[in-house]
């Protein structure tokens, strides 16, 4: 498949087979100072990004997590992963002081 000739913009991410739109996690992840100690939560719920990622890392399937937390959606999982990836990218880009 040929590469898409889309201009490089902040919301376009180069993919293996062309360009695709990055997940807009800011529509799903909220940070409220009085909820869960200001930790990033999913859509204002009392479920933190950390908890969702921990469940996924512990080999729980999406179906098992959805059974335990029916308010979550598959898009919420993608948003949590996108948030963690963006946070990691920003952390790695910060210069280290010697």
Q: Top keywords for this entry?
A:
98 residues, 3 helices, 4 strands, alpha+beta, 37% helix, Arc Repressor Mutant, subunit A, globular
How is this structure best described in words?
This protein is 37% helix and 14% strand. It is an alpha+beta fold and 98 residues long. It has helices spanning 49-57, 62-68, 74-93, and strands at residues 12-15, 18-21, 29-31, 40-42. The model is unreliable at 1-12 (pLDDT under 50). It has a domain at 29-91: Winged helix-like DNA-binding domain superfamily/Winged helix DNA-binding domain (Arc Repressor Mutant, subunit A, Orthogonal Bundle). It is globular and about 45 Å long. Strands 1-2 form a two-stranded antiparallel ribbon. Strands 3-4 form a two-stranded antiparallel sheet. It contains 3 helices and 4 strands.
Ordered list of secondary-structure elements with their pairings:
Elements (H helix, E strand, L loop, with lengths): L11 E4 L2 E4 L7 E3 L8 E3 L6 H9 L4 H7 L5 H20 L5
Structural class, please? alpha+beta
CATH topology of the domain at 29-91: Arc Repressor Mutant, subunit A
Query: What is the count of β-strands?
Result: 4
State the helical fraction. Answer: 25-40%
* Main beta-sheet annotation: 2 strands, antiparallel
Distance N to C terminus: 45 Å
The CATH class designation of the domain at 29-91 is: Mainly Alpha
CATH architecture of the domain at 29-91: Orthogonal Bundle
| Computed CA radius of gyration, to the nearest angstrom | 16 Å
Overall pLDDT: 80
Number of helices: 3
Spans of 5+ residues with little confidence (pLDDT < 50)?
1-12
**β content, as a range?**
5-15%
Order of helices and strands: EEEEHHH
Walk across the major sheet and give the strand order. Answer: 1-2
Q: In CATH, what is the homologous superfamily of the domain at 29-91? A: Winged helix-like DNA-binding domain superfamily/Winged helix DNA-binding domain
State the shape: globular
| Oligomer designation | single chain
């Amino acid at each position: 498949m040929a590469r898409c000739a889309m201009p490089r913009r902040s919301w376009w991410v180069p993919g293996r087979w062309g360009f695709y739109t990055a997940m807009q996690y800011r529509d799903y992840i909220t940070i409220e100072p009085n909820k869960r100690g200001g930790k990033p939560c999913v859509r204002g719920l009392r479920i933190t990004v950390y908890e969702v990622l921990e469940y996924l890392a512990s080999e729980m399937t999406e179906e098992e997590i959805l059974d335990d937390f029916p308010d979550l959606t598959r898009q919420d999982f993608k948003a949590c992963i996108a948030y963690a990836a963006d946070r990691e990218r920003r952390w790695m880009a910060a210069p280290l002081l010697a």
